Amino acid sequence: MQIDALDLNDLGIFERRFPHPAFDALRGRAPVWWHPPSELSPDGEGYWVVVDHAHTLEVSRDPGTYSSESGGDREGGGTLIEDLRRGVAVGTAINMTDGATHRRLRGLISRAFTPQAIGELESDLRARARSILDSVGEAGECDFVLAVARELPLQVIADMLGVPQQDRHELFDWAMATLRPADAQTDMQARMRAAGALHAYGQSLIEEKRRKPDGSMLSTVIHARQDTESGESEAMSGPELASFFSLLWSAGSDTTWNAIAGSLLALIDRPDAAEELRGDASLWSSAVEEFLRYVSPVTYNRRTVTRATRLAGERLEPGDKVTIWYPSANRDVEVFRQPDRLDLSRKPNPHLAFNIGEYVCVGANLARRELRAMLQEVLSRWTDFELTGPVRYARSNKHGGIESVPIRFRRIAD
Ligand code: HEM
């Protein structure tokens, strides 16, 4: 693999699934690599690429040095390679805030994500998973992404946010258009329109629930108050709530559906693993963690350096962009034996699919339950999976989007 020719801004590379061989080569060469600017680079800048497990941990555990908001004399920042303007998610969306603001938002959101609240969803998840599979009909063929994988997370997040189920597909289309990274093929006008539509939908729903609280998690978050570090009690501001709505809609749906679809693809490659799971229920806890490691649905996140520092011997300056690549850290042979192998009983499994530290995924336990419920239902009803056409991946270096998995299968009861 020619590392010097590698351009991670070339979204076409990711359209053919995550380029593991390139990242294997990078890890062999340098755990922290300077990606030079290319014609395709957002903002025309280079950035650091962190590819091994140890340095991904080091960056994630030190938000004072590696900010999710901004650093140096940058105007904007955020967690995408491309700088976002302050006020557009940066400084308002929980994952793009720092320090006291982040702690306050996290405190408010955590009220809605208690283990009890997530536990209460369990029976509902099973019922939903079954009815999604029932609706596939008798054909024994479907596009697994459209018919199955994306449905459970979408239905669940719609309920959590109090979005009427009939609106979920339209919101989903807006979220997907918003998440599309910028390149020559991206229609920026369409992206802005979609982001605006999602934001406006969120704002009007928030207004409605402000006037008429209901049992939804969104309503809980709107009406929650949190003590600030100066001793006052504050609720989320209007812009923070609207950003929360947009973030949760995408964070709660596309990541989990990729985990479900990616797991099925892994099982199509390894039918013996599907048999193992059917034969030994005690494997499920470790299997779910292994699917998350193996699939790693989120590709990267960015930080910005706030003070001069060293990382893996490299000197980093304030304002430098630093990217951490979870699928690569999760295949680091220093931490995972035979990392390219799906090992359903892998233990320990310190994967970083949900990141770690102060920004660790709020929805991790919900995602684990959704993944487990859907895969268990699929494996108990369907078998002999076969691909009937090409798998399509998203043109994105940010989300490991699996867009289409056409399959044929046999019903076990047949
Ligand atoms: C398999 C599914 C999922 C994966 C792989 C995943 C991954 C991640 C990762 C890597 C982060 C860290 C972001 C950073 O460090 O900048 C994160 C944060 C977050 N996730 Fe997830 N996520 C998943 C599902 C969910 C779900 C279902 C929800 C909510 C319903 C959710 C809500 C969030 C939120 C709100 C944050 C921001 C946390 C913070 O900034 O403190 N995620 N997720």
Short description:
This protein is α+β, with helices and mostly antiparallel strands and 414 residues long. It has a single domain, classed as Cytochrome p450 (Orthogonal Bundle), CATH 1.10.630. Helices cover 45% and strands 12% of the residues.
Please give a structural write-up:
The chain has a single domain, classed as Cytochrome P450 (Cytochrome p450, Orthogonal Bundle). It is 45% helix and 12% strand. The chain is built from 17 helices and 14 strands. The protein has a 5-stranded mixed sheet. β5 and β6 form a beta hairpin. The longest helix has 24 residues. The mean pLDDT is 92. The chain binds protoporphyrin IX containing FE. The site of protoporphyrin IX containing FE has 25 residues, from α12, α13 and α17. Protoporphyrin IX containing FE binds next to α12, α13 and α17.
Attribute tags:
five-stranded mixed β-sheet, Cytochrome p450, 17 helices, about 425 residues
What compounds are bound to the protein? protoporphyrin IX containing FE
Mind telling me which CATH architecture this is?
Orthogonal Bundle
CATH class value: Mainly Alpha
Biggest sheet statistics: 5 strands, mixed
